[in-house]
Amino acid sequence: MGTGVLCKAWAMACLAWLAVQPLNVEAGEPLGPPALTLARTYTGDMDPAGWWVSEKLDGVRGYWTGKSLVSRSGYPIDAPPWFVAGFPDFPLDGELWMGRGRFHETSGVVRKTGGGDTWKEMRYSVFDAPDENLAFEARLEKARSWFEAHPSPHVLILVQERCHGRKDLQRRLAETETRGGEGLMLRRPGSAWAPGRSYDLLKVKSFQDAEARVIEHIGGTGKYLGKMGSIRVEMANGIRFAIGTGFSDKDRENPPPIGSTVTFRYKELNPSGIPRFASFMRIRDDL
User: Fold this and answer.
1) Are 97 and 195 members of one domain?
2) Are strands 92-97 and 60-64 parallel, antiparallel or unpaired?
3) Residue 261 maps to which CATH number?
4) 268: Cα separation from own chain's centroid
5) Catalytic residue at 203?
6) Domain containing 175: what range?
7) Domain count, the chain
């Protein structure tokens, strides 16, 4: 049996298992990561003409198993019953989102048990409906048709538009970033669903992002005297460096804990592998 067939069989088994597992929301027990398609980075060496393009939402990934919402790490998301009322009995992949520049607020609501009214401004933006038997357009139409028949004020089907080439992509990226957006996503037309990193799904950003573990807090000077000035982090490859920008005053008073994982953005890697212009984005509190 080929590797591709084995991967698909494993993914379908995961989907079936997730659909029947009870969620222990009160205890917050993880179910194991759902099978997700993960994006690679657009490098500019490919002409994106004809590909689908959409905004990259800076929210919290939410996977609908057909019965419940779980995070990308497999933790149950305690969405109110009224929020998920009318959701389908088939899987959906999307982003829980409260608007541009509101990631921390969104994350706080999603992590809270019994959030209730705090979910009123939340939207579930659907960008896929995992099904190995359907092409991307048919999967999205499947989700769109469901919610046309079962309207929900809490659900959006993410707008997908045709890209007309590199210049069009750069124009769209500049406009999105000017509005406070994080970047864009490119999807290959007619692409099949498959778990794992995919060249059929590409993220487009002026800056790249990565993750690292916090190993030290470095005290500030000047106006940051008595507060955190920067953090020293270690990437998975063992490279260590300091991040001193991107923090709010609140972040500096309550810095990311030692041992926590943070997401940072950077322009490029220097010859020694250290990210240039590294800037703090957020704590990866879904890990």
Assistant:
1) yes
2) antiparallel
3) 2.40.50.140
4) 21
5) no
6) 3-204
7) 2
